[in-house]
Input
Amino acid sequence: MRDRLVEHGLMGVWIPKEFGGGGGGVLDLCLVVEEISRACGGMGVMFAVNALGSFPIILGGTDAQKRKYLPEIASGRKLIAFGLSERGAGSDAGGLSTRAVVADGHVTIDGDKKWTTNGGAADIYSVFAVSDPESRSRRISGVIVEKGDPGFEIGRAEDKMGIRCVPVVELHFRGCRVPADRILGGERGLGFKHAMMTLDCARPGVAAQAVGLAQGALEYALVYAQGRQQFGAPISSFQMIQQMFADMATKVEAARQLVYAAARSIDAGASNTSKLAAQAKLFATDVAMEVTTNAVQILGGYGYMRDYPVEKYMRDAKITQIYEGTNQVQRLVVARALLKETLALDHLKAYMPLPDHPNTQRDRERAGK
Ligand code: CAA
Output
């Protein structure tokens, strides 16, 4: 698979041309992820995680870091992974306990990472650790770790419900010592911001994976329903099935357009893309879960069995609602952004009396005025 992607020049479509990539940005990344995931969600994330791992370098790396690592990723010679989550720090990404001590021109990392997709297969890792425990807003730094660095080991591979073809592992750092010029951006304390900016760019990729999975399952169910005979007719001729197809296809298309809109807005350099990226991720992945579940339903007893791949689409879809921020976290991001945007709507406040002020007609009537 990796060889095919390299052969077709797809490995670094999102990486700027000056660093050996295709220069296509997030929309191109999404188009490739969607198409791969239409056939296999596991392969889709294997590909997409290279974007997740490389965005910290693209967005926050020094020029030297970009020149050293990005061309290798763009050419497909090396894979990159992203080490943020820990046993105790999933949704609460700021609650990391892995430590990075900077001294004598080196960074020494101690701790463990959990659920690292592509771990073991990757050669480069964007790792986030606490470098300044006393600091409030500059607690975390990003560090580039390479396979073979002393004190860095790949741990247990997870036994997963879906995306079974791609490794998801633990990472262990035991006095892992790397040169200080591997600190992302060459400066301590920028790690949390770099991680959040990365997720803003990468979440449309997960959303595209979800669109691809939903589309793949829908196509499978459409073909099946035209061949499957019950009550003397193909089940595709029954209106209950047709209604399911119409709703499934409409939701997939709505999700696709939202994902493309989010990707285009990031590529256009819009200032605040967190909300749109989160909306695309939560909508598309919820649609994927619904559509793949309905595809299993249309195949009935056969759908539940491993004889057909629709149950795999459903299992693969589930993780898209969880990784790169659960959909609960996406809703939190959207709601926070909405409330912040509303602060700018001063002109509405004049027409919006607060409930404890008897300003509305009804309040005045109640108060007998
Ligand atoms: N861009 C830039 N800066 C940002 C930002 C963004 N999108 N979001 C937050 N920040 C900044 C804030 O401005 C704030 O800065 P100051 O301290 O200077 O004020 C700082 O970061 C802290 O922000 P918050 O107070 O909003 O942070 P929080 O602790 O409340 O967390 C959160 C916010 C949205 C819940 C965040 O923790 C989050 O996204 N959690 C989910 C983590 C996640 O997605 N993990 C996925 C792991 S990767 C994975 O799953 C890979 C895989 O296997 C494929």
Q: What stands out?
A: The chain has a mean pLDDT of 95. Residues 193-342 form a domain with the Butyryl-CoA Dehydrogenase, subunit A; domain 3 fold (CATH 1.20.140.10).
